[in-house]
Design brief:
The protein is an alpha+beta fold and 160 residues long. Helices cover 43% and strands 23% of the residues.
Length: 160
């Protein structure tokens, strides 16, 4: 199972193009015409994913019994706010100016892997976010070994 991993900072060229990391393009697959980007609902960043991931989200929404207001919010903010951005022949994209400016992306973009999706950040804002996230993880005593042990326990109980 391919996942988006790691973080990369790439410069935006004079024509407004930025290279999507090769490892991210590999996860998307050679047939992917580009990516989908939209503003994060919770963070000052852009969310990036494949069209297939948004199709999965749409199918998942059909199976849930959410309040109409929640459907409206998701459809307006995510589906309505999404832009399909094609790759050029060298794996570069041109970020829509209105999305880039909304999250203060100007000369550089930080691409951050998040398993099934990724985010695009202003590198300085990402650094502050990472510091806060590490502090919160320490305060909540989050660790990989505890997560794995908890999952193993749920498997043994048959609840996972």
């Amino acid at each position: 199972m391919a996942v988006f991993l790691s973080s990369y900072v790439n410069r935006i060229d004079k024509k407004g193009r930025v290279s999507v990391p090769a490892s991210f393009r590999a996860v998307l697959g050679s047939e992917a015409p580009g990516i989908v980007v939209f503003r994060s609902l919770q963070l000052e960043a852009l969310e990036g994913c494949s069209v297939a991931h948004l199709e999965l989200l749409s199918q998942s929404l059909e199976k849930l019994d959410l309040a109409q207001e929640t459907y409206e919010l998701i459809e307006t903010t995510i589906f309505g706010g999404s832009v399909q951005v094609p790759f050029d022949s060298e794996g570069r994209i041109s970020l829509p100016a209105h999305l880039a400016s909304a999250v203060s992306i100007a000369d550089e973009v930080a691409f951050v892997g998040r398993r099934k999706t990724f985010q695009l950040w202003n590198p300085q804002k990402l650094a502050a976010h990472e510091d806060a996230a590490r502090s919160a993880a320490r305060a909540k005593d989050i660790s990989l070994s505890k997560i794995i042990a908890q999952a193993a326990s749920k498997l043994e109980e048959g609840t996972l």
